[in-house]
Amino acid sequence: MNEEYDVIVLGTGLTECILSGIMSVKGKKVLHMDRNPYYGAESASITPLEDLYTRFSLPGSPPDSMGRGRDWNVDLVPKFLMANGQLVRMLLITQVTRYLDFKVIEGSYVYKKGSIFKVPSTETEALTSSLMGMFEKRRFKKFLEFVSNFDENDPKTLQGVVPTKTTMRDVYKKFDLGQDVVDFTGHALALYRTDDYLDQPCLDTITRIRLYSESLARYGKSPYLYPLYGLGELPQGFARLSAIYGGVYMLNKPIEELVMENGKVVGVKSEGEVARCKQLICDPSYAMDRASKVGQVIRVICIMNHPIKNTSDANSCQLIIPQNQVNRKHDIYVCMISSAHNIPTTGKYVAIVSTMVETSNPEGEIKPALDLLEPIEQKFVSTSDLYSPVDMGTESQIFISRSYDATTHFETTCDDIKDIYKRMTGAEFDFAEMERQKCDIFGDTE
Questions:
Q1: What is the CATH number of domain 48-81+90-106+295-386?
Q2: 20 to 30 Å CA-CA from 217: which of 132, 246, 254, 267?
Q3: Which CATH class is domain 4-42+232-292+387-441?
């Protein structure tokens, strides 16, 4: 281990594994270590089911009704992939898709006044949705047509809207959309966690709604994809990519010290040996003195023997409870998956509820979601602190990722990856450039 590397990566969460793969492909000499004996860190999938009981300190073992423990792969962090989103683009460009199989999530739903409704995201669905009255349907249809045709470089499509100045609140007013429609548009289509976006320029929101619509158009049932056998397959896929390009992986490796000289990282000490490096990437748990707490998230894994009611018996779905519907500042998210994605055994369903903590009673905050899931056979409750780096890392050359937030998609994670990449290399993470270089850099390695 007493070698010098360009980059040492600590932790095998998805963020770290993607960056490790990208750096290896760019020709960097990479060493990747994790104190855990498994891939995925916070974004791991736990198997067998007995390990989930142990991890959450539940007494006893799973009942016989749960089937074989090794038939389960349960995510610790609930997230889906937007079919047209950034992570899918990264998977395609790096050809990590060769190691993974995906299935579309069957539905996307939103909560309104105690009931569950399918999210309308096309002009046709808007006209048949029971979420809105007849006149509101027409106004929403016109709004969706505006979003679909919107081109910031073509004044004819803007209808008087200034993309970088007109707020989203004003756009909603322009189309005379009511509060309930604003709620599901902002939170179930644009996927904002709070209402802060309303007074920001509208361009980002319109871009988000189009991403949702374009992702939906690819497969029809919902805009979301999910890997068979769980999210833990994603970091392993990027780990294989890194290994193909010379990256070295060491699991179950205790990290004793980050070795610094003149305020700059020069290596990592593990089991008495020092591996030297020029740059270091890590999750916050490896450099707590360089990260600050920015919030807390509660996640509850629920095992059930039935799908969520009023979702047309979908084998998988996302359900969003907009914050206004339950008098909160942050949305509540529910991701449900089944044996269709090889997560629980046949006949069982796993729903994971998550939200940002706002009070001293986190579990009470998600009661509206848990009520929708009853009866629940078994719950696994966790609250996790969210951390963010305290500096850019350019002086110390220690680049720390952000904790996984409560959102049920990977767009914010991809934003973090691009941000770290820019701080490390000084260059923007450019999808178009990577597409052009795919044949040269990401050539077929089989």
A1: 3.30.519.10
A2: 132
A3: alpha beta
